[in-house]
Each structure stands twice: as structure tokens, then as C-alpha cells.
Amino acid sequence: MHFRILSATVRPLPDLSTPAWTAKLAQRIERASASISRLDARVAVSPVANAWRQRSVWTGYAASLRGQSAEIEEIDIFARECGVSIPGRISPPSISEDAGDLSRWQADLKDRSIHHWRDDVAYSTATPDDWRNRPALLRALEMLGRHARADRSITSWLNLPRLLHSMEVTATPLPCLAIADKALRLTPRDSEAIVARFLRQIAEAAATGLQRLDAMEEHRLRAAAVAGNTLRPGKLFPLLAFLQLRPVTSPRVVARQLELSISGAGKLLARAADAGLLVEISGRQAWRTYLVTDLAVAFGFARRPVGRPVEPPKVSEALDPSLSRFDAEMAELDAMLARLGVVSHVGDEQT
What we know:
It contains 13 helices and 3 strands; from the N terminus they run αααααααααβααββαα. It has 351 residues and is an all-alpha fold. The radius of gyration is 23 Å and the shape is elongated. 38% of the residues are buried.
């Protein structure tokens, strides 16, 4: 009996950096590039850049977890990292992530040493001669796809902001640009849909990042104006600065951080809420929990105000002393949290 061995030719996966060009695709690349550039430029000069980066890390991490099929929302990560459990909300299962992933990513993002995107990678970085002539965003997508298939962990998604920085798409890594797409692993031949989805997602992520940066800068101005116009501000300045770094909070967390009684912290938070800088999201629950206003709207805990938005205070000589004090408080709190290496624990008793 004779057996005939049939050799099957394995078709190489499509190169995502060389799509079928159309006018619509060119517009998508232009739109995504412009959105990223606007965010990158603003972050470089923003007075709240450090606090924005911290929130952006939590946003990117939540998106990356969803790319690993974890059923989790941004608010879950924000609340956990701020040390607050939200009444009536079930904590996400711990099996959905490696406990060290977030801390390792944060350390990696803070590393300012020069890394080339080809260094220390577990996937092929072979590229054709015309590689540099291809759009940088599509080159990054191609390498993201290779990484995602070579490493099934969350690492590939988390690495994208560093990859974009190394490819000179951004001046610094922007954590909110951690884009995850399971199709890169499951249906990698569906290149047209993958490219279109990636460009849409990264443009939206950059636009959302810019909106949140705008909101944080507006919060800074309003907070300085509110505290500066208060006859006896007490620890209102430190509280409002703290909210930039920890936008989800409770009286117990504030009392511990600012060395106040729980009652005093609750009254201070109520003043901030009355000024429109916070929203209480705990409803009729016993444990009071607060969230900064723009995130309360973004996460569905509050409705966006109807009508024309109230203009934030104008930067002026009268406001300068309050802004300086606010920035000093935020820098001091930021440095203290960094020194302590704060690790948040969900489930702390709150009131």
C-alpha cells in the first residue's frame, strides 16, 4: 500500500502595515494621528500632567484587562486603586488578573531610560526595506499583533504606549492608548476590520484622554477659586488637591490621609460636593462615597448638565496665589504617596 503525503502551504498572515489603501482609510489614519498629537502636546505642558497620567494608567489597565476577557469596568480599577469600595457594586474577581501586572506596568512607564521597540522582545521584528515609509500607527499595529500572538498575557496590550513612544508617535508614553483587540489572536486574517477598528479605538482613546485632561484642568481652576474665596478653608486646599490624585474617595480615606476626624472629613467632602466639585455616588447607602464630577458623568453615576456649561474661572493675578497653593499641595501629596508606595485595599470600612 502506498501513501501519498500532501504538503499544505501555510499562507503567511497579512501584514497590517500594508492594508488595501482607500480614501476612507487615509482619513482614519489622519484623524487618529491628529487626535493623538493633540493629546500629546497638551499633556506636555499641562499643570496636572502627573495626576492625569495616574488616572490614564488605570484607564489603560482596565481596557487591557477587557482584552483578556475580564469582565471589568474602569470604575472598578479606579475605586480599588483609590482604596474605596463602592456600595452596591460587586468587586471584580481577583482571578481576572495577575496582582503584579499593574505595579510592573507603572514601574515600566516611569522608567525614562531609552528603549528601542526591537529590544528584548519575544516575537519576530524582521521588517521589509520600505518599513520606515509606512504609517507609524500601522507599523505599531503590526508589531502589536505579533506580540499578542507570541505572548497571550496582558503584556502586549500594556506595551503599546511604550511602543508608540519608541516609534516616535508620541513624545512620552500615554497610558490611555493601551488598545486591546482579541481579533489579533483569534482572527488575525481579518486585517481590514482589525485596521479600521484599531484606528477608531485609538482615536477615541486619545479624544477621551484629552477630554479628561480638560476636565482636570478645569477642576484645578474651580478648586483654587472655591478654596481661595472661602473665609476659613481649613484643609479644603489639601482635600481638593488630593482629589486630583485620588478621584474616588470616602470620609474614612480622607480622614486617614489628611489627619482629620471622620466627621470632619465628611463635612469637608460635603462642602466640595456643594461646590459642584464632587458627586456623592452612594445614594441612600450607609457608607458615603464620592467621585469627581466629570468621572461621575463618564461612568454613569450622574447626568451631564443640560444647557451651556458654566465657564471656569479665568487665570488672573487674583487667582494666582490660590493656584500656587493648590499646585504646592498636589505636589506634596503626590510625592508623599510615591514615597509610601501606596497600595490600595478594597473593602476597608467606610462611613
